[in-house]
From TrEMBL:
MF annotations from Gene Ontology: ferrochelatase activity; precorrin-2 dehydrogenase activity
Record pathway: Porphyrin-containing compound metabolism; siroheme biosynthesis; sirohydrochlorin from precorrin-2: step 1/1
Catalytic activity, reaction form: precorrin-2 + NAD(+) = sirohydrochlorin + NADH + 2 H(+)
NCBIfam families listed in its UniProt record: cysG_Nterm
Upper classification of the organism: Bacteria, Pseudomonadati, Bacteroidota, Bacteroidia, Marinilabiliales
Keyword check for NAD: yes
UniProt keyword Oxidoreductase, yes or no: yes
Record's protein name: precorrin-2 dehydrogenase
Highest taxon in the source lineage: Bacteria
Length: 150
């Protein structure tokens, strides 16, 4: 299926971000998102200790239910259950959420680019979910070029 993703910059200053799933991928996402915000909720039966120790992260140690989506603009579905991650993206539509499905770009309303942040400038490289390693490699090249140019 062909996918088209529009690069935009979203104002999240008034938004808590919801992560369903509290494992390795959730931890990775929160670390990256911390460059921009520190207001998160994590819902999962098992949440990594490292996530529990982070500032700005509310934890609910239980299974996801549909009503959890209420009020969220951005949702990351990061559970190890592919069907559940897909279901969250479907249910998100009814609540006006934008859902990132960690194991499937096709079901994602948004995907995260590889980012180089330098003061007020953000350089983001994406492949429309097709080749994350190539995005990371290109971001690193751009970062190295800029760091050596100024
Ligand atoms: C750029 C970055 C941003 C971020 O996460 O915020 C990002 N992934 C990062 C890292 C990373 N991801 C993976 C590895 C291990 C690689 C290895 O195997 O060595 C590493 C490396 C690492 O962890 O260092 C594996 C992986 N990733 C996805 C899948 C599933 C799939 O492809 O279907 C699998 C395979 C799972 C499996 O097979 O098990 C999916 C997605 N990952 C994306 C973004 C989106 C596409 C972006 C684009 O359009 O190019 C998309 C589609 C959805 C999304 O997540 O939004 C961030 C770099 C942060 C940085 O360096 O700053
Ligand atoms: N996007 C990416 O960058 C990327 C990278 C690697 C892997 N993945 C994919 O991400 C997924 C998660 O991987 P992981 O390594 O974080 O797994 P993990 O096993 O570390 O964590 C899984 C989490 O899901 C939670 N969970 C399970 N059932 C749940 C439910 N009903 N409600 C709420 N939470 C529930 C568990 O409690 C746990 O916190 C896998 O499908 C993997 O293929 C994505």
């Amino acid at each position: 299926m062909s996918m088209t993703f529009l690069p935009i910059s979203i104002n999240i200053s008034e938004q808590q971000i919801l992560l369903v799933g509290g494992g390795k991928v959730a931890l990775h996402k929160i670390k990256l998102l911390k460059r921009f915000t520190s207001d998160f909720k994590v819902i999962a039966p098992k949440v990594l200790e490292e996530i529990k120790g982070m500032d700005g992260v509310e934890i609910e140690e239980r299974e996801y239910e549909e009503a959890d989506l209420k009020g969220y603009l951005l949702v990351y579905a990061t559970t190890d259950n592919h069907e559940l991650n897909h279901l969250i993206s479907i249910q998100g539509k009814q609540y006006g959420c934008l859902v990132n499905v960690a194991d499937n770009a096709v079901y994602s309303d948004f995907v995260s680019p590889a980012i180089y942040k330098c003061d007020e400038f953000t350089i983001a490289v994406g492949s429309d979910g097709r080749d994350v390693k190539a995005s990371i490699a290109l971001r690193n090249k751009i970062r190295d070029f800029l760091q050596n140019s100024f």
